[in-house]
Amino acid sequence: MIRVAAVGDIHMGPESQGLLRPAFETLPDCADLLLLAGDLTRHGTPEEMDVVAREVRDLPVPVVAVLGNHDHHDGQPEKVTGILRDAGVTVLEGEGAVIDCAGTRVGVAGTKGFGGGFVGRSAGEFGEPVMKEFVRTTRRSADALCAALKDLAGRDCAARIALTHFSPVADTLAGEPLEIYPFLGSYLLAEAIDTAGADLAVHGHAHAGSEHGMTAGGVRVRNVAQPVIRRAFNVYQLALGRSGSSSVVRA
Amino acid sequence: MSDSAAPRAGAGTGENVEYRVAHLRDRLAAEELGELGVRAEVRAGAVAVTGTVPSARCRDTLLRVVGEELAGLTVHSDIVVAETARPDRAEEL
């Protein structure tokens, strides 16, 4: 079994220092790694990411993160990524990493992702250049996620996790206004996850959404936005040696 | 039938609760708080402001900005500060 702690959308600012650290210091008692599902800051400034970095530096469990849209707002994603990495965090964007969790190899593939909507109600790669680029941005992110998960499949991982900021499914958006679903996620991310396979998909971004969902292919999805889980983090215990829990019920 | 006291449609008076709420959202996104998913909706003649913010200071700031932008309107607010306790159980998958 691997114990996965996860939270997103912590939106730290100058006055946030120390709010989450006490809970994070208890992680070794209940989790083997911590996933941060983006929107760690409010505006993506180096000063805000410094607060996040101090909150997670030298934790006794590995920390893996993706950035969110807020972390891009100040236009310095490379710089804030560097601040997190200097604090020992593995930051993923369109790539995977194998994390050693007390001797168990856990593969995490991460990308921020982007919007576009869900099957039957999604934006198309058509018309004005800016519209085509919107959809292509999501497609590139999904393609990279798929490639990273496939790569991890060949690296002897006991479990594979997809980590995004935007949602791969509509299930976990329940509670958000339907009109904004296309800005909250894209089915392209779920298609990537189902194509390459994963044991769990974790995302944030949808503050008014709900925690539980599933891709069409049966991969469990969890929205860990802090306003949704109402905790410093949630913990998911993944049984090892089985991929998903799907079965075919015969008549 | 129309209310003779109300501005004539198309008269270009500009003042409108819907747009004031939209401008509130624009201001929240542009200033100190960022776009935190706070919802502001016109309901039965009042404005309902709901959502979760990361700290008590954010809630104070939010309510100050709401008061400035929606001065003169009835506002019902339900803003929650995010909880920072560790979970008391894990979910088995």
UniProtKB/TrEMBL annotation, chain A:
Keywords: Hydrolase, Metal-binding. Residues 2-208 form the Calcineurin-like phosphoesterase domain. InterPro entries: Calcineurin-like_PHP, Metallo-depent_PP-like, Metallophosphoesterase_sf, UCP008292. It holds the Pfam family Metallophos. The keyword Metal-binding applies. This is Metallophosphoesterase.
Automatic annotation (TrEMBL), chain B:
InterPro entries: BON_dom (IPR007055). Residues 22-82 form the BON domain. This is BON domain-containing protein. It comes from Streptomyces griseoviridis. The lineage of its organism: Bacteria, Bacillati, Actinomycetota, Actinomycetes, Kitasatosporales.
